[in-house]
Structures are given as C-alpha cells and as structure tokens.
Design a protein that fits this description.
Elements (H helix, E strand, L loop, with lengths): L1 E8 L6 H17 L10 E4 L2 E8 L12 H12 L6 E7 L14 E3 L10 E3 L20 H19 L4 H10 L4 H17 L3 E5 L7 H5 L12 E6 L3 E5 L4 E3 L8
Parallel strand pairs: 5-7, 7-10
Antiparallel strand pairs: 1-3, 1-4, 2-3, 5-6, 8-9, 9-10
Helix pairs in contact: 1-2, 3-4, 3-5
C-alpha cells in the first residue's frame, strides 16, 4: 500500500463549512469505492490550501478510470464549493502494510480482522488483498456494502479479542455462526462478487472454542454437513477447512493450535 497526499486549493472565495463538507464527501466516496483505506482522514488547512494524507492500495488508486459515480459527483461538489480538483503528491510505500494482488486468482475469499486496513477481498492463491475498485461495482455503483460488512466484522473481532465484557460472546457468535446476520450479509456479498467476477469466491468463517483437537478435525461444514472438507495441509497456513459447495473456509479452533 502507498501513502498519497492530496492538496485542495480554492479558486474563489469559499467558507470552511463548504470546504469541509465537499472534501469529506469526496474522501468518503473514495473510501466507499475502495480507492482509499481506513476510516478517518485528517484534513489540515495550511498555507492557503487543504491537505490530507491517505493510504491507497496501489500507486494508481486515485486514477479517474476507477472513479465511481459517487466519486465523480463528489468532484463536482468540490467545484461547486470553489475548490479545484485535488493535486496528488506521492509520498512513498507504506512499510507496515501488505502489497496488493496484481494477478488474477484461481479463487478468492472474503477475509479480514480488526488489525487489517486493506481490502477484505483476498487472492486465494497468495492471500494478498485485491483492490475493490478492480472488480465491478457490487451494489449501487460502488463497494459501500462490502466496506460496511468489513467494519462490522472488525468491530466484532475487536470485542472478542478484548474478552473484557459479555459482549464478547455475542461477537463470537456473529463471527462463527452461519445463522448470524454478519454471516448472512457477508455470504451474500461473496455470492455477488463471484457472480460479477466469475471467480470462485469463499467466505472465511471464524472458529474458536470446541471440545478438543480431535473433535475439531471431525467438525462438519456447518452449512451443509459436509464431513470431507478438512484439508490435508492448511491452505495459506490459515484455513484447515474448505467446502466447495458452500464456498466456506474455516480454521481449526485457535484454542488447539498454540
């Protein structure tokens, strides 16, 4: 991933409120399309212009060819607020993040965690994140629904990792049950992505707890009951189970893999 600085310059008189609204709308549109990563963007006013540093999946993430209808409309909103289209300044590659996938995968999956800022769509051959704007828009012209699902998954993951309140149990249920709302929405998004890309797309189902390692290995697919989904070797060193019928991958409970 890469760090890019955007500079917004006024070409006529404007107000801070108009500038703030139009710039934030533009940044949120980029986020909803997967062109920028993260949840919060610090915008500073300095030397007569507004500046913001962003994390992007690729050097070319802000290219016009990737713009969604919302991004295009947000650019018009900048003009209406008397702000020029942003100028880009390349800062460099982020040393603490992953490199985006550039190859067409043989399969892919939805996988994230509370520590990941990258795209939740992963290359199944390498586990590298696939920039969302590289695939057709999933709903209403962009990928907002995937970003929302990722935010909710990460919130549940952080709760269960903290293990400090009763909310932990509800969070684990959302992450690990095929009957949860989080699973239902994510699994449906998975299907939509597979339909649009024509690439087999899987959903990662989190697993923790269980009775023993032996019982975990005998655990069937929770959606169809398939007992043959245990892999001889874990895929990508993470996924011990894979059901091709249900498009689900999962892990042996982390309680028994220490």
């Amino acid at each position: 991933m890469y760090v890019i600085e955007l500079r917004f310059e006024c070409f006529d008189n404007t107000t801070f409120s108009a500038a703030e609204s139009s710039i934030n709308n533009y940044l949120e549109a980029l986020r909803a399309n997967g062109q920028v990563l993260g949840r919060e963007f610090a915008v500073a006013f300095n030397e007569g212009e507004f500046r913001c540093r962003l994390l992007t999946p690729e050097k070319s993430s802000l290219s016009q060819r990737y713009n969604s209808p919302w991004v295009k409309k947000a650019l018009d909103g900048l003009t209406a607020a008397n702000i020029l289209a942003p100028r880009e300044k390349f800062i460099g590659q982020d040393i603490n993040s992953e490199t985006s996938s550039t190859d067409t995968p043989s399969w892919q999956l939805l996988y994230t965690s509370y520590v990941h800022m990258c795209s939740p769509l992963r290359n199944g051959d390498t586990l590298q994140p696939i920039p969302l704007y590289q695939i057709p828009a999933t709903f209403n012209g962009d990928h907002k629904q995937i970003i929302r699902w990722q935010t909710e998954w990460q919130a549940c993951d952080e709760l269960q990792m903290a293990a400090a309140t009763k909310a932990e149990f509800a969070a684990v249920s959302e992450l690990s049950s095929t009957k949860s709302d989080l699973f239902r929405r994510g699994w449906d998004l998975r299907g939509r992505i597979e339909y649009l890309t024509k690439i087999p797309t899987y959903y990662y189902l989190y697993q923790v707890g269980g009775e023993s390692l032996a019982e975990e290995k005998k655990r069937p697919c929770p959606k169809c009951g398939n007992t043959e989904w245990l892999q001889q070797q874990p895929l990508l060193d993470l996924f011990h189970f894979k059901c091709d019928k249900c498009r689900i991958v999962s892990n042996i409970s982390w309680d028994y893999l220490k």
